[in-house]
Write a structure and sequence with these properties.
Layout (H helix, E strand, L loop, with lengths): L2 H5 L3 H12 L6 H12 L5 E7 L5 H13 L4 E7 L25 E7 L11 H11 L2 E5 L16 E6 L14 H4 L2 E4 L8 H10 L4 E4 L8 H9 L11 H19 L3 H8 L4 H13 L2
Parallel strand pairs: 1-4, 1-5, 2-3, 2-4, 5-6, 6-7
Helix pairs in contact: 3-11, 4-8, 9-10, 9-11
């Protein structure tokens, strides 16, 4: 893997770079940490999370949205697919809805299986979206279909757009907590198929000043306003400041809850990440090895 070529958006080398970050084996930790350290030196751009229930139209919207955003800059999409609880496999079929040119270096698509992880993301999603935010002007993260309490994406991205079924109506009242609380904006999808009035009325009761968009990815209605809204988000991303969430997840995965508690839990992770994630990982490993 040529790091400079990956930064130049060479798709083959970029794919290899992301594979390094996704490799969770203990034997690859040194190489993974080295790549993280190189990436930390670079500025990050905005990361937008697209989330919602299964079948609400996330992939279709991401396809339409990425094409429109590409007219103003470079775009990367990270799509998380569910893994089978029986076989452990995943179809990774989200890319089937994308209409993109393979030779376009300004657009990149990456699929991940969630590896049966709850929360809407995969274990290595943070590292991948962090890397992509250093290389592309905007990153769209499409979660798996989520339920009320699956809010992992909100820990890492700069903006969470919650997609809502147009016939949601009073059903939205049942999910005011959890994912509804974490949303920065709401997008009522498939407005050309079903009268969205019920969803609009329900959202008016819980939006609390947050933007509500009514769109149809199929006929394009409302897409210009949604694209403009996302284009006006700050170009400088804040994903580096959220690395402590990943560190806490990684420590728990590697060393259990007691390992996390030995570093002071989430607050302790936030403290030791102030000098960068790569430094924090090295510190954790060295400290635990001496015990």
């Amino acid at each position: 893997m040529d790091f400079e070529k990956a930064l130049d958006r060479d798709k083959r080398h970029l794919a290899k770079l992301l594979t390094v970050l996704e490799d969770r084996r203990e034997t690859t930790l040194t190489n993974r940490t080295r790549v993280i350290k190189q990436l930390e030196k670079l500025p990050s751009h905005g990361v937008i999370g697209i989330t919602g229930a299964p079948g609400v139209g996330k992939s279709t919207l991401v396809s339409a949205l990425s094409g429109r955003l590409r007219k103003n800059g470079t775009v990367a999409v990270l799509a998380i697919d569910p893994s089978s609880m029986r076989s452990g496999g995943a179809i990774l079929g989200d890319r089937a809805r994308l209409d993109s040119v393979p030779e376009d270096k300004g657009f990149f698509f990456r699929s991940q299986a969630n590896q049966t992880e709850l929360g809407g993301l995969a274990p290595s999603s943070y590292l991948v979206m962090m890397a992509l935010s250093k290389i592309f002007d905007v990153v769209l993260v499409e979660t798996v279909g989520v339920g009320q309490s699956e809010t992992s994406v909100a820990r890492y991205v700069d903006h969470v757009a919650l997609l809502v079924n147009p016939a949601g109506g009073d059903g939205l009242q049942a999910v005011k907590a959890g994912v509804m609380e974490e949303a920065d904006s709401f997008v009522i999808t498939k407005a050309d198929l079903v009268d969205p009035s019920a969803a609009k009325i329900a959202l008016a009761k819980v939006a609390n000043g947050r933007a509500v968009f009514e769109v149809s990815a199929r006929d394009g209605s409302g897409m210009r306003e949604l694209t403009q809204s996302f284009s006006e988000l700050p170009t400088a991303g804040g994903i580096d400041g959220k690395s402590h969430h990943y560190l806490a997840l990684w420590i728990t995965e590697q060393f259990g809850r007691r390992g996390l508690e030995s570093f002071g839990g989430d607050r302790g992770c936030e403290r030791i990440c102030k000098n960068g994630l790569s430094t924090a990982i090295t510190q954790v490993v060295e400290q635990l090895q001496t015990k």
